[in-house]
Structure formats: C-alpha cells, structure tokens
Amino acid sequence: MKKSYKTIFFDWNKTLSYSLFWEQWSDKNHPNHNKKDILTKELFVNNKDIIKKWMLGDVVSEDIAGLLNESVGLTKEDIISDLAHSCENMSYAFEDLLNTIQNIRKRGVKCVIATDNMDTFRRWTIPGMKLEEYFDDFLISNELKIMKFDIDEKNGVIPFFDLYLRENNLNYSDVVLVDDCIDDGFYAKKGFDILQIDSPDSLKKVLASIYVDHKN
C-alpha cells in the first residue's frame, strides 16, 4: 500500500464483524430457536424492501418488531429485547482486532466506523460494545439518511462522507475506506481509496499494512 492516511473509515458488517441480528436464536438450546427461520423469511424475504428503509432511518426497530410479531409469535417487546441483546454482544472479525485498531490510532490516524446500518447501531451496538472507547467517530446511514455508495455523479461528490470531511478539513485523498464492497470506479476517480475485505484474514493483512505504512 505504502500510503499514509489521516483517517481510516471502517465498514462494520462483514468487515469488522460478521455477527447477525438475533444471532443467539441459532443456538438449538435457545427458546426461540424454532422461530429463527420464520423471522428470517418474514423480514429478509417477504419484506426485504423494508431493510433499506430501516437503514435510511425511515423506520425504526419498533416498526420492524410490529411487522414481525404476529408471524413470529412473540410480543414486540420480546423481539426488541432479543434484537438488542444480539446487537450488544456482536463479535469482532478476529480476536485481536481492537488492539490492532488502537495501535494504529497511537500512530496519529483516526479510525472511524462508517456503516450502512440501522438505529440498532447507535442504540445498542455502540454502548453495548463500548465502541466509543476504541473508535474516533461513527458515520451511520440511518442518521445521515444516505448510504455509502449513494453517490452524486452529477456534482462529483460522495454525500455519505462529505460533511465529515468538510468538518475535519480532509480531502478524499486523505482517507481510505476498508470495506467488503467493491468500488464501481467512482471512488477511485475521486481519489478516495477503498481497500476491499473478503475475509477476517484479508482484514488482518490490510491492518498490518496500514500499521507499517504509518510509522512515526
């Protein structure tokens, strides 16, 4: 890589973490294990269009629980409770991830989570996992009302990131996004680097390279 950045943006899902909503229901001993497939089909198949609305802040978790409770056979409160529990107890892509992030921050590089995500992230994941202790800031699609790859080609801008960049006097060339998604060419055209991740091992390699390239 051999390039220094002032800020590193990290995707969450399938980059820093592979955990899922209601993941504890996968445990055969969990009392709601038999409801997992029902919920998955009802939300991610029958009502898949609502997922983007959830990620853009047009609906919140309580709306989702209200959509699911009858078909799943649980109260909205129980669905929310288990959703919150799963969000508070997500796992990192690899065991030593936080130490690696902190070592990079010690070299003067800001580490910011930039995620297409729901209200769940601010409400439960950040406080539950104490992420404010380990990351400098959070850009979340449900709060920004736009997703990372919703680019504005006409004006040549990337709205998801632009306010943060302006407020921190950063150019596209000063930052990098570590993400499992592939750039369609627009980010590269603007000089905004993306380092693609496809596994925990690839994340380890990218972080090791970043650490080496940011020697004091």
Write the layout of secondary structure elements.
Elements lengths: L6 E4 L25 H11 L2 H7 L5 H12 L3 H13 L8 H9 L4 E6 L3 H10 L8 E4 H4 L14 H9 L7 E5 L6 H4 L3 E4 L3 H14 L3
Parallel strand pairs: 1-2, 1-4, 2-3, 4-5
Would you identify the CATH H-level superfamily of the largest domain? HAD superfamily/HAD-like
Domains (count): 2
Which second-level CATH architecture of the largest domain applies?
Answer: 3-Layer(aba) Sandwich
Sheet-strand content, in percent, reads 5-15%
What is the count of helical runs? 10
**What is the H-and-E element order?**
EHHHHHEHEHHEHEH
Backbone structural class = alpha/beta
The helix content, as a percent range, equals 40-55%
Strand order of the largest sheet: 3-2-1-4-5
Estimate the global geometry from the Cα principal axes: globular
Largest sheet: 5 strands, parallel
| CATH level 1 class label of the largest domain | Alpha Beta
CATH topology (fold) name of the largest domain: Rossmann fold
What keyword list fits this structure?
single chain, Rossmann fold, five-stranded parallel beta sheet, 43% helix
Describe the structure.
With 216 residues, this protein is of the alpha/beta class. It has helices spanning 36-46, 49-55, 61-72, 76-88, 97-105, 119-128, 141-144, 159-167, 186-189, 200-213, and strands at residues 7-10, 110-115, 137-140, 175-179, 193-196. A five-stranded parallel beta sheet has the order 3-2-1-4-5, with helices on both faces. Helix 6 (119-128) links the parallel strand 2 and strand 3. Helix 1 (36-46) crosses helix 3, helix 3 (61-72) packs across helix 4 (76-88) and helix 4 crosses helix 6. The longest helix is centred in the C-terminal third of the chain and has 14 residues, at 200-213. It is globular and about 55 Å long.
